[in-house]
């Protein structure tokens, strides 16, 4: 029996969504300028230039980079912002 | 493009000067290029899904978020189209031109230039190999597209540097 004041979360998927970290992934494409991608990482995540460049180079050389990890809602917001700069980005559940 | 410059032009304004006829032609083609952002094969690049396999989330995104992004991208294109109307001769360089615009249009310019590069790339299925070719036959539509992607990229690079100052 639940105690008084306890809220039952019936939607287990939603609870998992809240608990499990989500990754924001940026994919490489042959068109976006390296300097542009670096600028976007600085603007969206507030990363210092060095970190933004490191992540940009990982995208460039490895084809993808995990640029942020955390709650789903924030991950969706970041993907939205990255799409607004026309970067190829998606979120995926952390394994 | 040796005279090409982006610099401040009084308070809160920027001037893009030293535009040669080739670059000018690329810029004047921007509205027509951007008008193809909804063409088959282009739309998925400008408005990608937010997940790889979550169909429900992807459908929600396309219903709720994509229209907002579409409006944002269209507004950027319209801002640049209006700024192009300020085209005037560059008095310092014969056969060159200049455009002045509000400094807070800088993001719209970067968006429009990047959109145009992506649209051209999707329309002509441009690959890394195409981008690294050393020469072009400008009578070939695909080569002309690659050439324009490079030219617009050069200009975008100047704007990124301006934005980073």
Describe this structure as you would to a colleague.
The complex is a heterodimer of chains A (95) and B (165). Chain A is an alpha+beta fold. Chain A has a domain at 33-93. Chain A is 49% helix and 19% strand. Chain A has 4 helices and 3 strands. Chain A has helices spanning 12-19, 34-45, 49-62, 72-84, and strands at 22-27, 64-70, 89-93. In chain A, helix 2 (34-45) crosses helix 3 (49-62). The longest helix of chain A has 14 residues, at 49-62. The radius of gyration of chain A is 17 Å and the shape is globular. Chain B is of the alpha+beta class and 165 residues long. Chain B has one domain (5-164). In chain B, 56% of the residues lie in helices and 12% in strands. Chain B has 8 helices and 4 strands, in the order ββαααααββααα. Chain B has helices spanning 21-28, 30-34, 43-46, 55-64, 66-84, 106-123, 128-131, 141-164, and strands at 5-8, 13-19, 88-89, 97-102. Chain B has a 4-stranded antiparallel beta sheet with strand order 1-2-4-3. In chain B, helix 5 (66-84) packs across helix 6 and helix 6 (106-123) packs antiparallel against helix 8. Chains A and B meet through helix 2, helix 4 and strand 3 of A and helix 5, helix 6, helix 7 and helix 8 of B.
């Amino acid at each position: 029996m639940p105690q008084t004041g306890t809220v039952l979360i019936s939607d287990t998927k939603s609870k998992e969504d809240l608990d499990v970290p989500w990754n924001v992934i940026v994919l490489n494409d042959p068109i976006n300028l390296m300097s542009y991608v670096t600028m976007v990482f600085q603007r969206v995540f507030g990363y210092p230039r060095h970190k933004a460049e490191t992540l940009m180079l990982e995208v460039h050389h490895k084809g993808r980079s995990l640029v942020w990890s955390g709650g789903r809602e924030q991950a969706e917001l970041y993907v939205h912002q990255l799409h607004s700069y026309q970067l190829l980005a998606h979120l995926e559940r952390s394994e | 493009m040796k005279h090409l410059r982006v610099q401040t032009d009084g308070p809160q304004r920027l001037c893009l000067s030293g535009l040669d006829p080739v670059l000018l032609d690329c810029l004047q083609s921007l509205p027509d290029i951007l008008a193809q952002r909804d063409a088959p094969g282009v739309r998925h690049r400008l408005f990608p899904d937010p997940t790889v396999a979550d169909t429900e989330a992807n459908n929600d995104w396309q219903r709720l978020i994509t229209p907002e992004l579409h409006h944002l991208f269209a507004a950027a294109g319209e801002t640049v189209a209006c700024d192009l109307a300020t085209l005037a001769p560059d008095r310092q360089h014969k056969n060159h031109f200049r455009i002045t615009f509000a400094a807070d249009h800088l993001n719209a310019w970067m968006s429009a230039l990047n959109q145009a590069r992506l649209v051209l790339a999707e329309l002509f299925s441009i690959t890394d190999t195409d981008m690294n070719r050393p020469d072009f036959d400008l009578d070939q539509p695909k080569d002309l597209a690659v050439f324009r992607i490079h030219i617009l990229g050069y200009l975008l690079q100047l704007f990124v540097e301006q934005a980073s100052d």
